[in-house]
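Regression test attached.
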Amino acid sequence: MPRHDPDTVSAVLTRGRLGIPAVVFFVVAAAAPLTAVAGGATTGYAVTGVLGIPLAYLVVAAVLALFAVGYVAMSRRIVNAGAFYTYVTRGLGRPAGVAAAIVALVAYNSMQIGLYGVFGAVLSGLLNDRFGMNTTRWLCAVIACAVIAVLGLLRIDLNGRVLAVLLVAECVIALVYDAVMVARPVNDLGVSFDTLAPGNLIGPGIGAALVTGIAGFVGFEGTTVFAEETKDPKRTVPRATYIAVAVTALLYGLSAWAMSVATGPDQIVAAAQTEGTDLIFNLVSPHLTSSLVTLGRWLFITSLFAALLSFHHTVARYAFALGRERVLPSVLGRTSRRTGAPKAGSILQTALAVAVLTGYVLADADPIVHLFFWLTSLGALGVLILMTATSVAVLSYFARIAHRDGMWRTAVAPFLSALALGAILVVTVEQFDALLGVEPTSPLRWVFPASYAVAAATGLAWAFTLRAARPDVYQTIGLGADSATAPLRTPDPVRQPV
Amino acid sequence: MHPHLEPTPARHRQARGSGPDRPALLADEFFLIAHDDQTGRPRLHQSAISHGLAAALLGELAAAGRISFDRGHIYVLDHRTPADPLQHLILDRLVGEPQHTATRTWLSYLAATAHEEVARRLWQAGKVEPQQQRKVLRTVTVHVPTDMNVAAWSWARLSTKLRQYEELDAFDLALAGIAASCRLDQFILDGAPYAVGAHLRRLLAAAPQPMRELLADLDTAIGHTVLSHRT
């Protein structure tokens, strides 16, 4: 329809929409760069013993960029995308959609709860060292959990500007550390590029290294959720997605490599095992003023906190969307009267976190390896499954509709990304013992991946139950907030004018 | 098309009970329910109030027979100018921008200014008085009701009728529907047996089609504000 001028309605609705930088800040904040650099990369070295971590980040980024091609192409056609779950529903049908939703709930909960482990360890370490306090890791984790619970219920998100400042500071400090580490190679042996050699990725740890890489990027898929709030979704969403992947990939790859330069490639695994998340700070502290090192530690903590809050809201919103559809109990689809927070979903997430944390405290497990690394790896495995399913869903979706989008976007790239992600998935599951750092005979290597099989099977069974028992609910699967209109009409989500 | 929401005159019937005269405007009544009847402080979060008010303003035009709702879109039935200046303004905008017909679009558009405009209308009618109140970091304007009995009348009426399992007329049904979409039913039905809530849901399920259309779009709009909330 021709655009009439002056179009006051569009002018009012487009006020305050997000541009590319804002979307990039929001999603990269969820990925928490300093968390991946100081926590993910070092723990990845330590647990998997693989030298190819820097390369893994770059390889994963390439695969994710390929994945993003079809993903953003689909986001142009599906309004109000609830992310993976909506896409899988539209591409592969409602039962697959419910299965994806349950997998997503498990995956994002694991990511979130796993981060409490590293948060508690890092915060208590800093408080004890710097301020002579005598806190324990678990106490700090539980306090963080309480704060997140309150913020979730009050529906407080970190302000966009605050996130931007923190994020830029994180990136700058990571780059400064990288420069220091590369400028001061161990024993003045010169800068070594050994960890970037492709050979490091072939071998028993490749799956583990790649999934560590994916864990660092989780959150980037959020760009499409912002489509409705951007100035120009067709342009903003794809660019923000590619920029987010590229920026984080370069930062992760560079930092992981710089650490190996500073320790020497042959020593990086041993150093990561002994020093853990302190490694990067210990490597730079002889060459920098202590305030810069302390600043880095604080930014590590704020970055973790931003990620914790972001994943908490993600889970609460997922539960809210499913509650609105009545796929999960409709109480999850209610909001708090005073704050508008998805209250039940938020409480549920906190309750789950408290239960898991309690279990870990009772078992006296290690917060970094057993909580942080295991659970975020589990989360990354879930996101990997979701991305693989989404690639197939994109293929299937475009195969069934009339469109004039090019073959590359709608068929070739999704096909290649499904192949690549599927291959990563297979080696990851095969080598899950290496990822967890347990014996190949340990039942844990099967328990973790099997949890997703159970989640998906539960989702499928529930979808078929709904189809038989509550066809009205079955019809609304994948509609999220738009499900309210389903009893009246075929819901046709409205793209707000831009 | 035939407007299903009752036209204006029907709403002037004096309700039973000894309350003050019923205000004739849906958005005014929703505004009064959504704020405390003594202090004027909001009972709901801001986006629910503004979307609820937007729906109530559209409901006023529908009740006046000017527009109707069908399958997610607004249809202008009658271009004649409504007596109320705010309704007049909105109808002019609806007529003037025919490229936008989606109810959701209009809800979002009206939500941007609804609070301010309805507050002004209530102030002009002498029902609220704006007051500056200092909060921790900012000053907020609170619209304090001039007469607590007037302000409390709408929710007291709805609450009583629902608790007695009475039928609601179209005006009260629309008001209760908008309140329920905004979760204000928790407040109106506080302490009532679950059966009362079920009674309200039954009444809303049997509401005229255009009203159900409007309420479904309001639910969707509020759901989206939850899913896309950023600060």
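Expected vs. actual: identical. The CA atoms of residues 409 and 497 of chain A lie 25 Å apart.
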